[in-house]
Amino acid sequence: MYIPKDYEMNNIDTLIAYIKENSFGILVSEGKELINGTHLPFLVERSSDNNIKLISHMSKANQQWREINGEVLIIFSGAHMYISPTWYEEEGFVPTWDYQSVHVYGKYIPKNSPEDLREIMEKTIEYYEGFQTEPWNGKIPDHIYNRLIEGVVGFNIEVTDIQGQWKLHQDHPDSRKRKVVSALRELKNQDAGKIANEIEKIIEL
Question: How far apart are CA 123 and CA 138, in angstroms?
């Protein structure tokens, strides 16, 4: 990914936290005729020796998994906002966009034994149900569960590189950042609030 130096995010803890918060990523891989892409939920795990892997699954009917050969890319995106030059109250500027994005590169590892698939499903359900006030217990009769997993394929991504871009007006003075934050707050939408919060973190550094 092209990343201007001002916008580089190299802190692994921050990047992993971002993936967890924005875990519905896009798996991109080279196919036989086209570039394939599928939107999927991803879990991220980091071992004691700092190896990182992503965990996910997709429909067995999806041709992408059959065609994966070589390195894959997973794109994670979150809040993003259009920035109007009128917010600066200065001449000589044009519109721009503030956002955060993480690109993960790695090796696709199939995980399709019954034990692997059960582990992937249980981890996925446990993670996402953890956000519910009354989590589902995940109990499914074995005959139904076995029928369901026949329709999916599981996999890990052994991560070889993580790149993060935090484009949040780092190359502008704090006075201008504050004007952007103020204008974003007035928009009163969720993405605007998130980007405003991230810009404020930079001002406070």
Answer: 11
